[in-house]
């Protein structure tokens, strides 16, 4: 069996905590005018400058941060499978992913929806009863656990059919792929995303999953597996990342420009379609995502590896609670935003205040959760 690295890289766990913070801020931005779906929206998407800013923030996050989560998950998948074997690995995935997903569907999802309806004067318990009686499934952000469970099972099947036997597995360092592979992967991911969106546009769920984004998710999960097998992350350099950081700088403003141009072209009616079809906006969006994602993922990886890779008690505390924070943040964020709903302030100000309060509250609430016997082995 292959030997695990002598020391787990600190920066990988810290990246997961940083991405969890971004998830909370992403949903806070939707609350105050950004585009996207969320339990409670105080301000709808509009042509207001704050709404445009939040929409660009959300689009930027969506382009890479969940795909980044899948890359980091893929990074640890082969070693876990080879260490535990198929049976124990699959059981662990069902415990660590399936149980939180089930808890959200049965408890946290209905709870969050009921908090909103109660604040709107429509009652708390009637919403809970309605959702349970009509078997309405709300997976919320735990769609990630659902998708990762599917990916993990597919990886096991692939290893059984095509992969090397687990006892013979080993890490074989190979150079980071050449730039033309990066270009082909960006074009291929964009083409696959555009093809999927002809049938399942962005914003449309199939079994609780937005398949319109899954071309990038599947690819980045596979990249994570390859990165572990061939030790790519340790070999990645600023020189290799530079073309994609430049691409990011050039491509990123094009989304804001395209939103403005599309709204002007549609007479302000908001009819521009970025989510599917073969309109110029849909094609641009599909190409824009990997151009932004490859650069941002490289930036995060290299910056954290260079600056955030030393021991830290505080970071260890944050990292240990990040998964629990991800699971519980919807009712916490919605509750805080509703409590501050009467406060009259600019959307940007409310975004920062509510976002920071939600981040602090989620980590504090998660502390006793990860200390609870039974639960701590899951989260």
Overall morphology: globular
Secondary-structure element string: HHHHHHHHHHH
Largest sheet composition: none
Summed up, the helix count is 11
Task: Describe this structure as you would to a colleague.
This protein has 379 residues and is mainly alpha-helical. It is 71% helix and 0% strand. It has 11 helices and no strands. It has helices spanning 10-31, 49-119, 125-133, 143-161, 179-197, 214-230, 232-235, 238-265, 280-307, 313-339, 347-371.
Summarize the helices and strands and which ones pair or pack:
Blueprint (H helix, E strand, L loop, with lengths): L9 H22 L17 H71 L5 H9 L9 H19 L17 H19 L16 H17 L1 H4 L2 H28 L14 H28 L5 H27 L7 H25 L8
Helix pairs in contact: 1-2, 1-9, 1-10, 1-11, 2-3, 2-4, 2-6, 2-8, 2-9, 2-10, 5-6, 5-9, 8-9, 10-11
